Amino acid sequence: MIGDGLTGPQLAPKNLATVLGWLHYRGLLMAGLLVAGNLFCMACPFMLTRNLARRFVRPGRSWPRALRNKYLAVALLVLYLFCYEWLNLWESPRATAVVILLYFGLALLLDSLFQGAPFCKYVCPLGQFNFVASTVSPLEVGVKALDQCHQCQTKDCIKGARGCELGLFQEKKIGNLDCTFCLDCVQACPYDNVTLRPRLPAQELWNDAYRSSLGHLSQRPDLSLLMLAFTFGALLNMFGMISPAYALANWLQFKSDGAFLAALFAVMLVLEPLLLLGTAAFLSKQKQPLALTAVRFTPCLVPLAFAIWLAHYFFHFLTGFLTLIPLVQQFFTPDVNWVVPPLLPGDQLMPLELGILALGLAGSCLVAHHIALRERTVAWPWYALCAILSAAAIWMLSQPMEMRGTFLS
User: Among residues 111, 147, 269, 397, which is most buried (max CB within 10 A)?
Assistant: First the structure.
């Protein structure tokens, strides 16, 4: 992808960097998260350079305590979404290749300076996206028998040479948050007591028990902000590709695309969450600050947000999947038909997307129900909030949408 992005044809549909990076990767990412878990962090190519470098350089610094949270990661995730739209990365193979190189460089720099895996845990915006999305996955890394962990004296899963570098102690680990599925803990355990096991998707979102490295979800406003960026970022990313967004930009007549995008991001990622979550928290009628109620209920939005990302990315993936065929053909013959049919007919896409959103809405309502039982309050304001977000997603999916990075556009 880097080679073709820098030296290949600079027309997006004819370049591996843009087609694989902005079309196939995202569809396969969501499919992997849906059927298994955080498979793409498990196979992260950026760790190749990090592991090679650590044969020669041993980091001696600890990650700053003030940055041991998700605030930096939230800012970088928002910046990533903003730059994707502002710089039109999806139509620039060279810019896409540069982004990949910068990613390699940043991962190498941070993990060469600091112990553990601070890039994965506190910095990488793609990893944070995967962490949140994997909370609805059907598999997790966990222990087979807690009794064996209680008897263990060496704690190799956390203290061993190849123990968890993200600080997840298996005996106290719950769910997939912060887990890269690297399976180092599986190899480190001398008792073969750590495994990849099935679980109930999204259950960890209403479980507020203490969890290793993260504490209680209800006491982590930074994780709540990350989930909000994941949720409203899904709607924002979709809105940027439909015709009403361009009509709005023309009507407002901003002096630059950057100014319009900044205003759009402020409305959809700041004002809209404040209004909607503030209203839902107020209607919950709890005797505590509204912000605390919002933090405790924010996890209920994740299943619906995952469904919105999934429906959106599957739309592009299923319509543009076969574009890989002419990309490969161009290396062998100049006679290439660049216009390929969609993998799934257009009249079948909308029912699929509606089914995905319905499942996501049901999952969010289930999580909201369990959180309300835990907090001893009503759940209907959060049901209403999820219904509003679902309606917004359905409206967007029914609009004409850009087929970015393909000749179908």
Answer: 111
Instruction: Give residue 333's identity as a one-letter amino acid code.
Output: T
Give me the helix-helix angle, 346-375 and 290-297, nearest 10°.
130
Q: So what's the pLDDT on residue 157?
A: 87
pTM score of the predicted model: 0.94
Cα–Cα distances in Å, from 100 out to 17, 106, 110, 127? Answer: 9, 10, 16, 14
CA distances from 213 to 39, 169, 173, 356 (A): 21, 8, 8, 32
Query: What is the rounded CA–CA span in Å between residue 144 and residue 193?
Result: 5
- CA 120 from centre of chain: 13
Question: Residue 309: CA atoms inside 13 Å, Cβ hemisphere, count?
Answer: 26
Rounded CA-CA distance 323/340 in Å is 6
Of 299, 287, 259, which Cα lies nearest the Cα of 133?
Answer: 299
CB 323 within 8 A of CB 23: yes
**Amino acid at residue number 197:** R
Beta strand residue intervals within 248-303, DSSP E? none
CB atoms closer than 10 angstroms to residue 34: 18
Helices and strands (H, E) in the chain, number of each type: 21, 2
* List of the chain residues with pLDDT < 70: 161, 408-409
Nearest to 401 by CA among 246, 262, 265: 246
> Alpha-carbon distance 377 to 379, whole Å?
7
The single residue listed with the structure tokens 């990661």 is 73
Q: How far is Cα 247 from Cα 393, in angstroms, rounded to an integer? A: 18
What pLDDT does 332 receive? 86
The reported pLDDT for the residue numbered 390 is 98
One DSSP character per residue, 37-56 reads: S-HHHHT-THHHHHHHHTTT
